[in-house]
Amino acid sequence: MINVKSKGSNRFAFENERALCLTQVIKRTENNVTKKMVVRDKKMGIDFSVIIPLKLKKNGEVHYYPSKEFTVRGKKVGTKNTMAKYYDSLGEWESFKSEFFDTYSLTVNKLIYKEAIVK
């Protein structure tokens, strides 16, 4: 089950069996977007937020720049720590990636850039 809601052109809610994610576009310039994700991982009982800069390439793929401000349970876990590194340290990255992040990215990034192209 996947549930996606759009709240205007800059706010999105995505939920599946693994996680709930509220996404807000905090900066947008042509093909560059900075988004903030607030995620509740239902399986692990972890709440985190992360700011991720993105760029839409000419071939239509989305490039992820290194994340900024990764916060777990209200505490900053460092500028060099990433969502992937954090989940990998728990032995859960591949599971989280396949159960949530891959589908989330395809769905929400498409909506973010669809809104950008329409404007």
Overview of the molecule:
With 119 residues, the protein is α+β, with helices and mostly antiparallel strands. Helices cover 28% and strands 43% of the residues. The protein contains two helices and eight strands. It has helices spanning 83-89, 93-118; strands spanning 3-6, 11-15, 19-29, 32-41, 46-56, 62-64, 68-72, 75-76. Strands 1, 2, 3, 4, 5, 6, 7 and 8 form an eight-stranded antiparallel beta sheet that branches. It is globular, with a radius of gyration of 14 Å.
* Strands, count: 8
Count, helices: 2
Overall pLDDT level: 89
Shape: globular
User: What structural class should be given to the helix and strand makeup?
Assistant: alpha+beta
Helical coverage, percent range: 25-40%
Order of helices and strands: EEEEEEEEHH
N-to-C CA distance = 30 Å
Work out the count of structural domains. Answer: 1
Which sheet architecture does the biggest sheet show? Answer: 8 strands, antiparallel
Percent of residues in beta strands: 35-45%
Q: Measured on Cα atoms, how large is the radius of gyration?
A: 14 Å
Provide the low-confidence segments as ranges.
Answer: none
What can be said about this structure in brief?
This protein is an alpha+beta fold and 119 residues long. The chain has helices spanning 83-89, 93-118, and strands spanning 3-6, 11-15, 19-29, 32-41, 46-56, 62-64, 68-72, 75-76.
What keyword list fits this structure?
single chain, 119 residues, alpha+beta, 2 helices, 8 strands, 28% helix, globular
